[in-house]
Amino acid sequence: MAIKPFLNEDFLLQTDVAKQLYHDFAAQMPIIDYHCHLPPDEIAADKVFENITQISLKGDHYKWRALRTNGVAEQFITGYASDVEKFQKWAETVPYTMRNPLYHWTHMELKNPFGIDKLLNQDSGKEIYEQATAKVSTAEFSVKNLLLKFDVKVVCTTDDPIDSLEHHQAIVKSGYEVKVLPTFRPDKAMLVNDATSFNAYVDKLEKASNRSISNLAHYLEALENRHQFFHDTGCRLSDHGLESIAFAPATDKQVALIFSNLRSGSEVSEEEHAQFQTYMLLFFARLDAEKGWTQQFHLGAVRNNNDRMVQKLGADSGFDSIGDYRQASTMAKFFNELDKSNQLAKTIIYNLNPADNEVFATMIGNYNDGSLAGKMQYGSAWWFLDQKEGMEKQINALSNMGLLSRFVGMLTDSRSFLSYSRHEYFRRILCNLIGNDIQNGELPNDTAWLGQMVQNICYHNAANYFKF
What we know:
TIM Barrel, uronate isomerase, domain 2, chain A, 4-stranded parallel beta sheet, 19 helices
């Protein structure tokens, strides 16, 4: 059998029917990126990047981890080295990333949108840097034009309740055709393991909500005010990044006392932290349900493990990993508490530990109530799992335990404007899995129906589910 060229038009597609599903159905679909970490200020300013390093390496902790693993000094990653030197170190590292998804993603990012199909390595680094920089530094490849090139229809950024959302408002006023919407991410509003940091946050919330906060009732009023402000600015999703969903119920009086103690500077116990987080999660969940939002839970990361490097570089700099937290029991109790009063909003749950795939895939079936197709969603493979094997396992778990046909599909979860190649990656993997089933006689060769199913997963399900 002839060896296939790397990254050709049939990349990852092993059968003729997989090729048909991808090229005739999946490839043409627009993108709804309902969870990402793109900076809205750069979209509002329609930023033009100075060079390829600025858009492809700055802020990408996936690539930073690979560089460190390859023995590259920090000065060439987040340090004082020039952008030319940093890109060259990445070029030298790329061949060592073979079988890591970074090898695929890097070359997909160069091919689309820049049209560069040469392999990146030590010898080609300088040439590719110059070629890519010559394009990315022009208005044709500005941030807004890049989103249009990738046929993105909606972008949902990740925003703290205290954020002004001024950049989202500016984007709307500019008449830009891509919807750029905020997502309500109140993690810091529930993080009370350090009273000093929590009080500093509450002080900022006072300014953002333009009201004094001296007790729990004031605190809830201020957060509800910000929730409404986000809604008025187009927000329709919340998001929570947690180790696991807490469920330690407490009375209003108990939580009010915890809040009062925090405001006086007292530290709280582990049990009190769980009680406060549970109370706030239920509060936010009920607000989401009232407004028809979708709530998301990204669960299972153990973050900022390297104290020395985090003190030097800050959070989200590449020192996180998969955690092995217990998930099922408290998650079920939390959802059940909301379901009892019919206050369970549309929900997406994402696991970071692959051992939890079937746990999460079966959990959603407990609370789908017939009110909406796919009301409870098992979210796409996330972070360390958004690679070929991780995506296949997530798709297979969802297929086995639920309805893949109702899945709302892929997202980028990225800080890079070049990450939309991950949607192509996902779509090729999806089509290949279905194509293999048809080839093996496990599914009928009904490409009209299966093609529609693919298009629904790629775009239509998300459009119908979120109703942006």
